[in-house]
Amino acid sequence: MSSAVVVGSGPNGLAAAVHLAARGVTVRVLEAQETFGGGCRSSEPTLPGVVADDCSAFHPLAAASPFLAGLGLEAEGLRWRWPEVQLSHPLDGGREGVLWQDLDRTVAGLGRDGPAWDAIVGRTARDFATLVGEVLAPPIHWPRHPWALARFGLDAVLPATLTARRWRDDEARALFGGIAAHAFAPLSAPLTTSVGLVLAATAHAVGWPVAEGGSQSITAALARRLESLGGSIQTRTTVTSIAELDGADLVLLDLAPAAAARLLGPRLPATTARAYSRFRRGPAAFKVDFAIEGDIPWTSENARRAGTVHLGGTFEEIARAEADITRGRMPARPFVLVGQQYLADPTRSRDGINPIWSYAHVPHAYAGDATEAVIAQIERFAPGFRQRVRGVASRGPAALAAHNANYVGGDIGTGATTGLQLIARPVLSPNPYATGVPGVYLCSAATPPGPGTHGMSGYRAAGAALDWLSRR
């Protein structure tokens, strides 16, 4: 029987392990941290019994993933929960842009900009079933739905700044801008529209759900599936050299390229080593968890029912803040994401105290304290928030990297998503998972399709490994 070792237990590492084990490979997953899950873990950082997600929080791509959604992880205890409102983007004066799962309701709420939203985002949502496999594939692949992909590509290739001109009012422009800002890139960069389109269309197609009990429930379900297939997970185990894994037929690395290069050492071909050394890191996140009494007193009505709230003001404000962080400058008003997962999943709360998940976009390796900047952005749109806070826990870029080694400098996307790196992630190849070392594959978010809890990087890397194994 063939054997494999997976180094790293994030969603991609576990997805790779499950796919290999389902094909009859004996799999061991090795994790350096005390707990498995990578960016998909949960804890109680503020007060006992108040559950917060450590990084990933809302999971549209997990619910839409051809691999994860097809596993039937409900049999392993995973339960999805949806908020009433998928996303609110408050503006000064109580205005807001609102993203409902119902496309027609979203279009109606955007008034005169509704038809343009339907023409751009709605078309992608209507094509979603055929597009999802294409957009979650490597950039160089033979498309199964070329016309749908071509229609999507004509819009997706544009900078978000150009796409935003299709809307006239601040509500629609800011709503789309906040979604596109998930790219951690200047909104003037090509292809930033693609991020806004995919995430907005996914909200209409499947919603932005949370995992009941916390995001750890996703990786716990994957772990249970792996164990049912005969695989195992070993935590507190650090691998420093590929020589420690000699004897395994396959090795899959849920690691950032620089870490993979260190582990592979002189076995790594020079061309791959150069590509890995040129791999650029993106801006960082500064995470702040709150425990609050009651709810956030949002001025905007629908924000009080929204699972996710984007705070950044107008499209132009967001664009300036994102441009600043990519230039290494900390904006006075950073773009902030707020999660109110407890609205869909009350099991995370305790005795009237609710968890609030948030993070700000900050420069790479930012060494300052952005806690007050996050609070100020929330207060801007929810006066009185500060008085409801009963506990705070902050985690800056250095702490994020200590918690997850793939998050170098606080880059939770495991690599910048701009320029050539959009398609050369981390190499330009039909098989970007291959390291050039026989039987060794990279399966982290540094490979296509990139960041997100979708497991597709692990699944596709495992597929490439199985193909190699069958030809050996």
Spatial strand arrangement across the major sheet: 7-6-12-13-14-11-15
Strand content: 15-25%
Q: Structural class, judged by helices and strands?
A: alpha/beta
Number of strand segments: 16
Describe the 3D structure:
With 472 residues, this protein is of the alpha/beta class. It folds into two domains: 3-38 and 212-278 and 415-471, 3-Layer(bba) Sandwich (FAD/NAD(P)-binding domain); 80-210 and 282-403, Polyamine Oxidase, Chain A, domain 2. The protein has helices at 11-22, 60-64, 103-109, 114-126, 128-135, 146-156, 160-163, 170-180, 192-205, 216-228, 257-264, 270-278, 315-326, 371-381, 385-388, 397-403, 456-471; strands at residues 3-7, 26-30, 42-43, 52-53, 80-81, 85-90, 96-99, 210-211, 232-234, 250-253, 284-293, 306-311, 336-339, 353-362, 389-395, 440-442. The strands form four sheets. The protein has a seven-stranded mixed sheet, sandwiched between helices. It has a five-stranded parallel sheet with strand order 9-2-1-10-16. The longest helix is centred in the C-terminal third of the chain and has 16 residues, at 456-471. The protein is globular. The two termini are 14 Å apart.
